[in-house]
């Protein structure tokens, strides 16, 4: 989002909280959400040795999230606040370590944290490779178990200057989402192999990506009500300035709905 605000990026796949933060920071001018990508796929995983069996056990523990202001960081802090816990930064007794997803896996394996609120496939890595178990599936906190975890955002200037390019990207995004939804088993294998090639590592055990895809659903619907709630949560935590966020102009689903209509799919009301 820093690169996008600086004009170094035109389009990105990003979580809703960083997108909202960039939108608010730019006085509601920098970007627009043009499509949804994914729902769900975020889990609160704790180590098997943490002694955490209920919410009463969360006090005095150390948890990790992938970066301050990240979608999972907001979710973790909001959840703790809803239960009456305060972080050490607030004078409370729960420590939050914000770091990269890859480093979270290492800290988890070393027993330096008691748990983490992370997206897939890192959640499944913690479960299958690092001695963890699910304390909470975030879907259980949302109506119909749906909440946004990824959106396609475009700078307002690029969208205005190159709608034809954005349209082709959205066509490709829709195609891939439909393909994954119709070929989940094959998608799990392909994701495992492709990510291993990109990161020059060996593929992970097959069950990790198979499990990860059961926690996720892919959709072009940006799930606006969940994004609005996530923004309210971030504001309540003091992450979005002194005024409640106004997201009335953050969406432009015109191109997406044109594509959906052309392909005989249901359009999305914004």
Explain this structure to me?
The protein has 270 residues and is α+β, with helices and mostly antiparallel strands. The protein contains eleven helices and nine strands. It has one domain (1-270): D-Maltodextrin-Binding Protein, domain 2 (3-Layer(aba) Sandwich). 43% of the residues lie in helices and 19% in strands. Helix 8 (184-198) crosses helix 9. The protein is globular and about 55 Å long. The relative contact order is 0.20.
* Quaternary assembly: single chain
As laid out across the biggest beta sheet, the strand order is 5-4-6-3-7
- Identify the CATH homologous superfamily: Periplasmic binding protein-like II
CATH names the topology as D-Maltodextrin-Binding Protein, domain 2
Mean pLDDT, to the nearest integer, reads 96
Model regions low in confidence, pLDDT < 50 over at least 5 residues: none
Could you say how many structural domains there are in total? 1
What's the order of the H and E elements? HEHEEEHEHEHEEHHHHEHH
**Beta fraction of the residues?**
15-25%
Gyration radius, in Å? 19 Å
Distance between the termini: 23 Å
CATH architecture: 3-Layer(aba) Sandwich
Q: Helicity range of the residues?
A: 40-55%
Structural topology:
Blueprint: H1 2-5, E1 11-14, H2 16-25, E2 31-40, E3 42-47, E4 62-65, H3 71-82, E5 95-98, H4 101-109, E6 115-119, H5 122-128, E7 132-137, E8 148-155, H6 156-161, H7 163-182, H8 184-198, H9 206-215, E9 216-218, H10 224-236, H11 254-262
Parallel strand pairs: 4-5, 4-6
Antiparallel strand pairs: 1-8, 2-8, 2-9, 3-6, 3-7
């Amino acid at each position: 989002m820093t690169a996008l605000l600086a004009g170094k990026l035109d389009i990105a796949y990003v979580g809703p909280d960083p997108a909202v933060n960039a939108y608010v920071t730019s006085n509601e001018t920098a970007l627009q959400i043009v499509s949804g990508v994914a729902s769900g796929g975020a889990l609160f995983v704790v180590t098997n040795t943490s002694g955490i069996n209920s919410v009463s056990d969360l006090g005095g523990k150390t948890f990790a999230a992938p970066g301050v202001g990240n979608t999972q960081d907001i979710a973790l802090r909001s959840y703790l606040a809803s239960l009456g816990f305060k972080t050490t930064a607030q004078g409370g007794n729960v420590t939050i370590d914000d770091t990269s997803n890859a480093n979270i896996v290492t800290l988890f394996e070393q027993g330096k944290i008691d748990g983490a609120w992370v997206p897939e496939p890192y959640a499944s890595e913690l479960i299958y490779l690092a001695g963890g178990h699910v304390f909470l599936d975030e879907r259980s906190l949302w109506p119909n178990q749906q909440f946004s975890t990824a959106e396609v955002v475009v700078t307002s200037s690029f969208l205005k200057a190159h709608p034809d390019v954005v349209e082709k990207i959205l066509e490709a995004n829709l195609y891939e989402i439909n393909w994954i939804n119709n070929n989940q088993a094959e998608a799990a294998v392909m994701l495992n192999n492709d990510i291993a090639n990109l990161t020059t590592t060996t593929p992970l055990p097959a069950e990790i990506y198979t499990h990860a895809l059961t926690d996720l659903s892919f959709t072009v619907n940006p799930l606006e009500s969940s994004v609005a709630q996530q923004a309210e949560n971030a504001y309540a935590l003091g992450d979005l300035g002194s005024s409640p966020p106004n997201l009335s102009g953050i969406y432009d689903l015109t191109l997406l709905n044109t594509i959906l209509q052309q392909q005989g799919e249901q359009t999305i009301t914004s």
